[in-house]
Specification:
There is one protein chain. The protein has three domains: 212 residues, Multidrug efflux transporter AcrB transmembrane domain (Multidrug efflux transporter AcrB transmembrane fold); 87 residues, 2-Layer Sandwich (Alpha-Beta Plaits); 123 residues, 2-Layer Sandwich (Gyrase A, domain 2), CATH 3.30.1360. The chain contains twelve helices and 17 strands. The strands form six sheets. The protein has a four-stranded antiparallel sheet with strand order 5-6-4-16, covered by helices on one side. A four-stranded antiparallel sheet has the order 10-7-13-14. The longest helix is centred in the middle third of the chain and has 49 residues. The radius of gyration is 27 Å and the shape is elongated.
Length: 470
Amino acid sequence: MKRVPKPVFFIVALLILAFTFTAVFGVAYYNGDNKNTVLKGVNDIRWGIDISGGVNATFKPANDYNASPQELDAAKATIETRMVSSGITDYELYADSNNDRIIVRFPWKSDEKEHNAAEAINEISATASLTFRPGNSYEDVSYDKNGDLVQKVPSGETAETILMDGSAVKDAVAGVQTGQDGSTQWVVNLTLNDEGKETFKNITTEYKDKVVSIWMDDIMISAPTVNDVISDGNAVISGNFTSATATALANKIKAGALPFELETVTYGNVSPTLGQNALLAMGVAAVIAFIIIAIIMIVFYRLPGFIAIISLLGQLGLSIAAISGYFPLMSSFTMTLPGIAGLILSIGMGVDCNVITAERIKEELRGGRTLDGALDKGTKNSLAAIIDGNMTVVIVSIILMLVFGPSNILSFIFGEATTGTIYAFGYTLLVGVISNFIMGIFFSRLMLRSIAGFKPFRNTWLYGGAKNGK
């Protein structure tokens, strides 16, 4: 067996524990009363309707507009795209073409302390019409909830002329831009399509050293001066953005404008079927269960059991990170009760993975092999059984996500109302199994082979062999 350097155990174990800690509790700092989140944790998870409740709203076309069934479906698709882009996967969305109504239900944001249904539904029902206009003239001003000035309603030449609209945008992504003074600010990076690239080149040529304002509906979000001709099809919207507002704007632009303006007919709060108290009880029960599992693993499997607990903590941290939006490239995910069940089930499979490996090592030791031979043979013999069991779950998880996810491949059979809850189960089960492969197969075996290099830990009894064995 190829020996692993001794320090590897301590390096990997410390990295796993540090990662799990930050994944669970997050990393944030306060600038006055404003909280700035560096890494998201459990408190940043958007809980499903069954846990935290949410919003229920019914929309109709504004100004008595007679929408066709195709237009209603297009509006529904736009709303759905916005919700999925924002990580809202626990939702119910219907288009009633007979009554010109769109009905939607979705959970609260994770950071919403005051549950304002009217403000929440504006997140998905705004028309989100992006326009580029000459100058920066406006008629009205107001202040947002943070006390910042908002310029509204274009006037003069700014109102009369639209240089380019959102149809020219191919993609929109939130990002960070560093200024010449070293300061950073959140921006929205736009990638234009072929037609938009040419149009924007002409705009920046004509209005070089002049102001071209950018509007979302009737609100001016940025008014930059054109410094150079931009011909590569990449534009940047700058403004007083935070990470959340830049991401929300990018999602709206990417989803496109609604085919008609929506008017809210009715709206209200949806009470949770489970509630935060039940969630706390589940959390306490999970901690108690984990402690019991840790004791059993250590008693029955000794040193491999101890290492298994470290890898299980890593698996839990990695699963939570994939849900909370810990990784910048992965969107946050809406966590429902079935999603929690999928997470628990994947942890159970992680325990099973480590048990199989520990049992194979124990069998090899009792068969007369040396410690190094038992570790080598035991880990190899257990790999096929672990992969076989886990791959079956991966296939089932993917099927659940495809059938009950936003794509709704078989919604005509199962119905769209099942989308959020069952999709959450499939998603958490999938990320849990992938985390199990990373932690339970790779890192736990790496730590096991590393710690076996220390003389005090070469007693075969620590691995399930005969007492006083060497």
